[in-house]
Amino acid sequence: MDRFTVVLADFFESIPLSLDLREWESYARAIGEFRIDNFGSLGTGLLLSWMGVPAAPPTFRERALQGGFLPRLGRLTADVRRGDGTLWRRTRVISYIEYNVEGPSGRIQGQEPQENAYQGEAIGDSRWLRATNPSLNPFADRRTCSEFRFFDNLIERMAHVGMVGDELKRGKVHGDITMAINCPPCVSCIGVVR
Q: Is this structure's pTM higher than 0.85?
């Protein structure tokens, strides 16, 4: 095994398998020790395949691009002006998602784009997920990530129809979620996907 794969395998072992707070605290420590924000396209692809997440089919990727949901060229930026005259340049991360999730109490399906939020826009914590901010960037608020925001909103919708109230109910939920992102996800969002 090459060094990159060894590092990935070690990181993979730290990704939480449940919503248990202790597992997420351990994951936060691991992210701090690895001192990495993301593993790029190659590393992310390997981590997702080890999780059993297949690559999105070409027809899905075409819909994401044809519909104008995702840019054809990498990252986008946007200027944000604050009230005090400060100008920030932020990276826009956009996800396009198609989903069909079903449980004994209902079904939720749809398709939507989701963009990361502005710094300071996420003011509350998720009831369900834990954002893990890498120590490399103290200004990063992973609650603003497009992937985190989508999954948090989806779980809230699932909660409203009674799909996630307890472990027994969650165990009966099944379906598909397919996501395309205009750049590799951060390590916090890899944990959220799992």
A: no
